[in-house]
Amino acid sequence: MKVASRISELQPYLFVEINKKIAEKKARGEEVISFAIGDPDIPTPPHIIERLCQEAKDPANHRYPESAGLPELSRAIADWYKNRFDISLDSETEVLPLIGSKEGIAHIAFCYIDPGDIALVTDPAYPVYSVGTSLAGGRMYYLPLKEENDFLPDLNNVPQDVLNNTKMLWINYPNNPTAAVADLDFYNRVVAFAKQHNIIVCHDGPYSEVAYDGYQPVSFLQAEGARDVGVEFHSLSKSYNMTGWRIGMVVGNAEIVDALRTLKSNLDSGIPQAIQYMAIEALNGPQDCIAEHNAIYQRRRDLVVEVLANIGLDVKTPKASLYVWARVPEGYNSVGFTADLLDQVNVAVTPGVGYGKSGEGYVRLSLTIPDAALVKGLSRLSGWRNTRRLTPKR
Ligand SMILES: Cc1ncc(COP(=O)(O)O)c(C=O)c1O
Questions:
Q1: CA 243 – CA 228 distance, rounded (Å)
Q2: How far apart (Å, rounded) are the C-alpha atoms in residues 180 and 147?
């Protein structure tokens, strides 16, 4: 059976070889400790689960939900944005709940990308910006994120012929995988760029609540005029450890929100209502869990950074996100170093190149690993030896 070319042409999964190695090790009874997955290990806070249990018993929540979500949920999202970022959103026109932000991120391309249109996508990046664009028949023009630019894209060097066909720009801060952060000054420049070239901005900000040392990430929508040009995708996945419940949102420009609402009303039947009530509880309820989780991640972050630096990796302490992004030692590329860690010490990390060409030379370690496994994994990492170090000249 021949699948459509939009499926057969999707990029093969880059971690095939690494995953094969992990599977072989596991089959031999070896224990692999994985720093590879960005999925919070801490459970969803009890008060949110309690609300699910109550709402699951109500027959009103057993029926098809509205695709656009409960008005109370959109109001809770708007209130949360007001409290957290001092941004006033019209909950009817500027807010749309999503079945996890991933689906909205993929689907928005179908609202704005016609075959041949271009999306500017940062490199490295969360893969779904490109996947959505490709599935909609569009093309990507990649903006490298370089360490010397603090992993912010250079907007001044996009060729005019690319700009002529560009419909969208994807940005994401705090960033996955580089853990970089952006300030309002950067977002102001993004707004000016988007206005000048008539481009829609999609900012993806699921890590805005995962931050350390008192740092508070800003929202793209806080930039002057941001709502004229774009939207922000957000999620309850990382803020409230709710990856498994699948709930997120898009907020901002009413026209863009409306286009996605129209598409989704034809594709899906909304978020199970009991889960919408969980989200209302999470957003309106006590927020102490966020600081509690961040304290745990911060402690893990410090341990990970220390061990990586001790074994000779060039690594910066991240201010936010669930990730540590480290340069691989000289003599290795990102896949080679990942394979070497697996071979020598049974530890799995993610090769940076899996997120795009410019991720070459880096690996990503996630902080969402339970403490006992973390300690064991770090002790193994400490025992890693660089076998490719060049012998110093005499
Ligand atoms: C940058 C980024 N955006 C979006 C998502 C998707 O989050 P969700 O679909 O769980 O809301 C992730 C998940 O890892 C992510 O890292």
A1: 30
A2: 9
Q: pLDDT by residue (tens digit) across 237-263? A: 999 999 999 999 999 999 999 999 999
Q: Beta partners for 143? A: 122
Q: What is the 3-state secondary structure (H, E, C) of the chain?
A: CCCCHHHHCCCCCCCHHHHHHHHHHHHCCCCCEECCCCCCCCCCCHHHHHHHHHHHCCHHHHCCCCCCCCHHHHHHHHHHHHHHHCCCCCCCCCEEEECCHHHHHHHHHHHHCCCCCEEEEEECCCCHHHHHHHHCCCEEEEEECCHHHCCCCCHHHCCHHHHHCEEEEEEECCCCCCCCCCCHHHHHHHHHHHHHHCCEEEEECCCCCCECCCCCCCCHHHCCCHHHHEEEEEECCCCCCCHHHCCEEEEECHHHHHHHHHHHHHHCCCCCHHHHHHHHHHHHCCCHHHHHHHHHHHHHHHHHHHHHHHCCCEECCCCECCEEEEECCCCCCHHHHHHHHHHHHCEECEEHHHHCHHHCCEEEEECCCCHHHHHHHHHHHHCCCCCCCCCCCC
Do strands 350-351 and 248-252 pair parallel, antiparallel, or not at all (unpaired)? unpaired
Report whether residue 204 contacts ligand 1, using a CB cutoff of 6 Å: yes
Confirm or reject: Cβ of 176 under 6 Å from ligand 1. Answer: yes
For residues 222 and 203, the answer to whether their CB atoms sit within 8 Å is no
Taking the whole predicted model, whether its pTM rises above 0.85 is answered as: yes
Give the pLDDT confidence of 305-337 residue by residue, as tens digits. Answer: 999 999 999 999 999 999 999 999 999 999 999
Residue nearest atom 5 of ligand 1, based on CA coordinates: 102
pLDDT band, residue 14 (cuts 50/70/90)? low
Tokens of 105: 């991120």
- Indicate whether 13 pLDDT > 80: no
**What pLDDT was estimated at residue 295?**
98
Query: Residue 182's closest CA among 142, 229, 143, 222?
Result: 222
Decide: 232 in ligand 1 pocket, CB within 6 A.
Answer: no
Is any atom of ligand 1 closer than 6 Å to the C-beta of 101? yes
